[in-house]
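Following up on my earlier message about magnesium ion. Here are the inputs again, as you asked, copied directly from the submission form:
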Amino acid sequence: MFGAPTRTFSVNFALFLVALALFPVFVRDSYYLHVGILCMLFASFALSWHLVTGYGGLKTFGHQAFFGIGAYFSALVSIHFGISPWLLLLVAGIVAAILGLLIATPVLRIRSMPHVAIVTLSFAEIIRAVISNWRDVTRGELGLWGIRTFESFSLPLIGAVSFTSTDKVSFYYLMFLLFALVCFTVLAIMRSQYGLAIIAMRESENAADSLGVNVVKYKLFLFALSAFFVGVCGSFYAHYLLILTPSAVLHIEVIILVIAMTLVGGVGTFAGPIIGAFLLTILGEWLRGFGDYRMLIYGTMILLCVMFFPGGVAKLGSRLREFGGFSARVARR
Amino acid sequence: MNFGGISALDNVSFEVLPAQVFGLLGPNGAGKTTLFNVIAGAIVPNAGRTLLNGEDVTAWSPNRLCRAGIARTFQITQPFQALTVEENVMVPLCGKGFSLSQMRAQVGEYIEGVGLGHKRFALASELSTGQRKRLELARALATRPKVVLLDEVTGGVDMASIGGLLDLVEKLPGMGVAVVIVEHNMSVIRRLADSLLFLNRGKVLARGKPDEVLGHKDVVELYLGAANA
Ligand SMILES: Nc1ncnc2c1ncn2[C@@H]1O[C@H](COP(=O)(O)OP(=O)(O)OP(=O)(O)O)[C@@H](O)[C@H]1O
Ligand SMILES: [Mg+2]
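Thanks, got it. Here's what our run produced:
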């Protein structure tokens, strides 16, 4: 069903976005806004990773590198050169995209997916090791401080929009816009004939290649676009939290979390990574009260979810399936 | 073409003219599929060349060769399982400047042509072996090829549908398409092929008009002998 979205999908997706947009109107508590921001941040990350892996079929495990590079690049340039974080959001995305192209080049030659996973993971580990050990510049695990935040501006009707740690509303809406951008880009691609070619490539690379699909071009495009979005997310994260450590943004746990979100939500569907990111982020926050047991409960729940709903939550109820819209079917193999 | 120590193709050369059906025969493991893989760019040969209208196209990527006019079907079918039959056949039209609805309209003739009209909106994963073979043919033809390489496209197709399939293949030369066909069914070969090449262990055993090749002493012994015995 490439082409126009179904009515049900459009309605559900629109309601979801409206609910997100109205959330700060009713909830002013900055902790809840923070959780909302994290939900949308991880949903954007998961959607971008899923673009390459769920749709493109390239099993990459190194996307934390793009997140970390986006974050550290943006933070360091803002600290040392005083460049505006607004500009850096874009530049960090471009830097991550270039890095994405660099890592995609060797990956293109590898047909075996376990090898693709290992190569991308190793690449991310190298980036992490460099940033951890380059203490003169990054301060390693001590944490990078003094990152600039977004400059305030004023809008007609709304007035001054400022980004301070006490008022999370502006950050919330900025993240909301980034999330919407990722959603609409992914939808636009996957509903077009390019989406058709991408799914064909996932289903049989040899056949797609023999039918004129330039598989090299598509793989590079997917990698670059996905890395771009994840880099932008990393940049946002840096200028939002204002402190970075390699273990927070570059650790393998980051990508494991994103993969868990996608699996729990449903691979191959549009709604899956979003639902998974919201569920696991909220669950993770809720489990904070359980102290050390948190990771144990968290891990068990992910395991149970993957074991008992192999298709993911997005394919559970019929309403949710409708929300998954066109792509629930695409996931069936 | 070598695989390790095995010489899968050794000094095999042939020419296919437009509007001609060229049959490729040989026992299992003779190198027929390997020859198709070389021509279609799926594997790069250690030596030898492929010329298309005089241009050297050796070692081009499969998608570039497809755009240049070489299409192929796979002996072991490779359907896009998660896509419908219609979407499968639309893939060759991606990025050619058509809208999705134009693409949908255009693929109808190929889907009907191979007799899959009733399966148009079925997922490819739901097709039988014979239907998958027909889908392979429809997809290859949707690339609007100059040369089409058919690797046992009648394999597994039921008797009732073979006729329609052959009618379709028979029309291709009339449209100026050169057809290379690998086929184990002798009646199909006799009906379609203008000339034949018989391969054995990567070497040419016989070539020429169908009657000459099928009557060749070594061919009879190797291939038909087993069937007649
Ligand atoms: N990728 C490969 N690696 C190693 N050997 C291969 C490879 N592909 C084919 N071969 C070998 O090359 C030889 C020719 O195989 P090919 O598939 O071309 O035969 P064929 O004529 O198509 O046979 P069939 O009638 O069974 O389809 C065989 O000995 C086969 O085992
Ligand atoms: Mg073969």
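One observation from looking it over: Residues 318-333 of chain A have pLDDT under 50 and may be disordered. Hope that helps, and feel free to reply on this thread.
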